Amino acid sequence: MYERCAGSLRPFHCYIGLQTSTDGVHFTPASDQPLITPADLGSQYGSVQDPRVVALDGRFYLSVAYRPYAWASQPTGVGVPESCQVAYPGFSGRDEDNQTRSGLFVSDDLRHWTWHGWVTPEGIDDRNVMLFPERIGGKYWITRRPSGFGGTQANHAAPPKGVMVSTSDDLLTWTEPTTLLRPAFAWEDNRMGASTPPIRTPDGWLFFYHGVQNLNPATRRVCYRMGAALLDLENPLNVIARSPAPLLEPTTYDERFGLYIPDVVFSTASPVVEGVNHLYYGVCDTAIALATAPLAAVIEEVKRHPRDGGLN
After folding, report:
1. Which of 103, 6, 14, 99 lies closest to 52, judged by CA?
2. Region for residue 182 given its phi and psi (left: phi exceeds 0; alpha: psi -120 to 50; beta: otherwise)
3. How far is the C-alpha of 248 from the C-alpha of 289, rounded, in Å?
4. Which domain holds residue 181?
5. Which of 155, 242, 167 lies closest to 191 in space, CA to CA?
6. What is the per-residue pLDDT for 58?
7. Which of 102, 117, 186, 302 has minimal CB crowding within 10 Å?
8. pTM of this prediction?
9. Is the per-residue pLDDT at 7 higher than 90?
10. 207 with 226: CB under 8 angstroms?
11. Number of structural domains in the chain
């Protein structure tokens, strides 16, 4: 298990850690040191988070989101934390100069990772990067969410466009992003983003994504939920089905109350073991939880809501 972990909130430096398990439920740290640090991407003052791993072409690829200068965050217990830029050597202190950029690491053994390259450009907030686990039409596919620039007051220079995808011939040069899913329901009205690597099924790619809803803009209270769609195997831009209701939402105490942001479920891994979908997800940016469901039942639920002509 690759975890996002932090040693403090002010500043909020985040790292990628590694845990192991023999049963998929009880995990122990593999080391007392982080697996990947912000310095591995260029800045010891930064933050790295949102790990997603896939096996592809005989190797393993880990996608991450990286901010070069970590914010200082003050949780409110009500909504999105209050945040501010921190003075670092060589940093202007401007939001525009401290955007989240996403890229890839590569490994042959899941423990030793080498930097592969950037997926997104500098100067914009672009995250929720995640590779499809195989080439489609001879090309690599990856999800993105370019959002102008993101500021400490949770504002953006441009509204998020939903889940987008780019393709590549070599995993280094990527096309301009194309929209895959647009916000369509009330629980997605703030923003959307890819969740876990897509799962190939006979019915299509099972694609989990998160939606964020504005509950009270005055207090920046939001709610993170998880939805699902089925995408065409040969052309994922063709959306076969999409559930209008979330498949997972905050209901338990741990999912509704935590150290950082209340009312959050956020998944980045969903392996299938003996026909059972194991969904690992963060709760309130505080802990990691596990939910399970028969894969066939999840697919049948999404198939109940076909899209007309691939409307996304």
Report:
1. 103
2. beta
3. 12
4. 2-310
5. 155
6. 96
7. 186
8. 0.95
9. no
10. no
11. 1
